[in-house]
């Protein structure tokens, strides 16, 4: 494999220079759900409770390079409390730089009840397709045993959810928010053209990279594995879903489409312009909201009922809120495509 592409940092996170060498050797510690990974533990010490395996041929067919264990250092399992295996780690490059990465299991391709031909974001099927400056890159995979593999994907400790909370709630930050919106729309337009559904388009999955005062958003998909954001998810069957940010048909019928991305984008805009201080349907708990979605599935739903859960943000302009409302439409055909949204942004400012 040509490893130069793996360690190219020109479009990924800020490289971390480690001038001080760690004197102590990594602790010989087996990872379990009760014991966190010791700082700088080796990959070969990761003990997996899941028996899921991935065919080496599938990985080769997706042209994913294999990354050696000795180039990775595991820092901690960020999904420990919820029995997830998602390891914040560092990848060493040939020029002694260290890149922040996440090690986690590829998602199995799930058959949707809608029998959709669309692909899911970051399954093995889609990995080789994703090449966009505003999407995190899968750098390859690491073998943890003869039967087990973990993906090695770009990561950053900062994201829009945490950053938005620090901003002043006034019009002075419109230009900054617009920059983030344009980058997110660019990534989602690319996914739309690639026929890929994200499934979890929320602020914690929008990683924020800053290099030489230049901010770049990169969309990821592993916030649901992070203990820090567990409160945002509700278990539906075997899935953890951000039900407050999803349309009814996705939650109840497992019916996903490209217009699901549009709905989630509407909820993302709404939360962004509330500076991550409010959540949709704040008057209902998760169980009550799920029951409401079930009722709508049986009795029908209209857009006016949906928007009751999304009170207009204080700094939201008429045009911006009109876009949010259209994204939250009760039927797929009424939701705008990202081609339309992109044209809207280019033709007339939303702010």
UniProtKB/TrEMBL annotation:
Residue span, Protein kinase domain: 72-351
Pfam families: PK_Tyr_Ser-Thr (PF07714)
Gene3D superfamilies: Transferase(Phosphotransferase) domain 1 (1.10.510.10)
GO molecular function annotations of the record: ATP binding; protein kinase activity
Keywords: ATP-binding, Nucleotide-binding
Stated name of the protein: Protein kinase domain-containing protein
Origin species: Didymodactylos carnosus
Classification lineage: Eukaryota, Metazoa, Spiralia, Gnathifera, Rotifera
């Amino acid at each position: 494999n040509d490893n130069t592409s793996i360690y190219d940092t020109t479009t990924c996170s800020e490289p971390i220079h480690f001038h001080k060498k760690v004197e102590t050797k990594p602790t010989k510690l087996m990872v379990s759900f009760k014991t966190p990974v010791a700082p700088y533990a080796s990959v070969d010490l990761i003990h997996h409770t899941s028996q899921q395996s991935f065919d080496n041929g599938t990985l080769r067919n997706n042209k994913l390079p294999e990354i050696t264990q000795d180039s990775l250092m595991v820092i901690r399992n960020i999904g420990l409390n919820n029995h997830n295996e998602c390891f914040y780690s560092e990848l060493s490059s040939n020029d002694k730089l260290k890149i922040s990465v996440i090690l986690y299991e590829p998602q199995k391709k799930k058959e949707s009840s809608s029998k959709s031909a669309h692909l899911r974001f970051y399954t093995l099927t889609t990995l080789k397709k994703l090449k966009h400056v505003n999407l995190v890159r899968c750098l390859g995979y690491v073998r943890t045993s003869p039967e087990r593999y973990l993906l090695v994907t770009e990561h950053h400790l900062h994201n829009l959810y945490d950053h938005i909370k620090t901003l002043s709630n006034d019009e002075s930050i419109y230009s900054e928010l617009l920059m983030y919106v344009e980058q997110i729309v660019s990534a989602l337009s690319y996914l739309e053209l690639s026929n890929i559904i994200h499934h979890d388009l929320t602020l914690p999955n929008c990683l924020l990279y800053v290099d030489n005062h230049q901010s770049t958003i990169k969309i990821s998909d592993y916030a649901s594995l992070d203990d820090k954001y567990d409160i945002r998810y509700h278990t539906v069957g075997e899935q953890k879903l951000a039900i407050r940010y999803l349309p009814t048909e996705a939650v109840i019928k497992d019916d996903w489409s490209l217009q699901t991305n549009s709905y989630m984008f509407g909820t993302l805009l709404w939360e962004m312009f509330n500076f991550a201080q409010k959540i949709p349907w704040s008057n209902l708990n998760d169980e009550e909201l799920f029951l409401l979605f079930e009722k709508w599935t049986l009795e029908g739903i209209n857009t006016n009922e949906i928007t009751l859960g999304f009170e207009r943000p204080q700094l939201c302009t008429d045009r911006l809120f009109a876009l949010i409302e259209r994204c939250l439409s009760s039927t797929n055909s009424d939701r705008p495509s990202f081609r339309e949204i992109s044209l809207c942004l280019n033709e007339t400012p939303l702010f």
